[in-house]
């Protein structure tokens, strides 16, 4: 459909299978793609239903169109295979090793809890089109694969849209209605909200991959993390990632649930039981002094900054994949 719209708008493009590897005006193409609405889709489906099942005119009925499976992809188009292939080979190896169950939950906007009893798995497969890495949680998945060496596609797929929740109008059995957090309806009119939800899943996965790939930025951030600095005339020592306490603190800050809702001192206490509340407060102040966390105005919640994510990811990766295996030999 987008190809026909691009042709009508005199925008030249090149396709490979169902992927665009070149478009003269990417911004305009995105605007055209965003114009697809449930109302338009409803009219198209009704048109084909009337052709295939004209008996409905006799009963004077209409169709209710629902969703069984939906996919939302984010395509990153590269100028050449020489640029994309080395990059994809590197991040695909990192992703299959580094992504854990809690990360998959985070990508799909969920938290680890006993109530969410679903199987989580990650797997790598090679297909004719390219190499695919798929992270699955029940009937939902986030996957990454290359298309003809020119397009890197991040795709979130669900076979049960009610897995996701959003704020909407809820009609109760007693007749009253309220607006609250509830499961997404399976109607095609949920597509507008689902688009934002699934694009959020793609974005979180891309953010995770970007931290794995940007080694130089992580190294610079790690240097800032470990080197002492002067603040208001006082010397503040850097963080020693090989110190047991500080290692536990930094790894705790990287937990997926804290990326979603932020972290408080009380949230860190279960992961640092040997530290007093005042000690955790002092550590949080050091982290703020180094610019690794930022405070939400008017609250006691903190989020990792970009430099904090990069530095901690680099240090965790160095310890887990290089130093510890080397010492175990």
TrEMBL record:
UniProt cross-references to InterPro entries, sorted A to Z: WH_DNA-bd_sf (IPR036390)
Name the UniProt record assigns to this protein: MarR family transcriptional regulator
Lineage: Bacteria, Pseudomonadati, Pseudomonadota, Betaproteobacteria, Nitrosomonadales
């Amino acid at each position: 459909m987008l190809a026909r719209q691009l042709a009508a708008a005199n925008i030249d493009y090149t396709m490979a299978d169902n992927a665009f590897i070149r478009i003269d005006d990417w911004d305009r193409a995105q605007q055209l793609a965003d114009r697809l609405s449930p109302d338009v889709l409803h009219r198209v489906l009704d048109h084909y239903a009337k052709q295939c099942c004209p008996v409905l005119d006799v009963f004077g009925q209409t169709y209710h169109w629902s969703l069984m499976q939906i996919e939302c992809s984010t395509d990153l188009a590269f100028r050449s295979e020489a640029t994309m292939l080395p990059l994809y080979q590197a991040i695909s190896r990192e992703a299959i090793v580094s992504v854990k169950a809690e990360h998959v939950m985070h990508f799909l906007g969920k938290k680890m809890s006993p109530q969410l009893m679903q199987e989580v798995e990650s797997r790598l497969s090679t297909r004719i089109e390219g190499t695919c890495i798929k992270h699955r949680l029940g009937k939902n998945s986030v996957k990454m694969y290359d298309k003809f060496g020119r397009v890197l596609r991040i795709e979130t797929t669900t076979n049960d849209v009610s897995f996701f929740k959003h704020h909407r109008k809820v009609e109760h059995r007693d007749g009253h209605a309220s607006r609250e957090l509830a499961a997404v309806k399976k109607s095609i009119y949920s597509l507008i909200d689902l688009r934002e939800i699934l694009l959020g899943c793609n974005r979180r996965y891309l953010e995770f991959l970007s931290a794995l790939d940007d080694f130089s930025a992580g190294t610079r951030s790690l240097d800032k993390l470990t080197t002492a600095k002067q603040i208001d005339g006082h010397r503040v020592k850097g963080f020693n990632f090989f110190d047991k306490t500080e290692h536990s603190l930094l790894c705790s800050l990287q937990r997926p649930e804290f990326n979603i809702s932020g972290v408080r001192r009380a949230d860190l206490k279960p992961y640092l039981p040997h530290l007093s509340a005042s000690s955790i407060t002092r550590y949080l102040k050091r982290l703020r002094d180094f610019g690794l966390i930022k405070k939400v105005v008017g609250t006691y919640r903190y989020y990792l900054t970009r430099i904090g994510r990069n530095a901690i990811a680099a240090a965790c990766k160095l310890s887990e994949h290089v130093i510890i295996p080397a010492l175990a030999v």
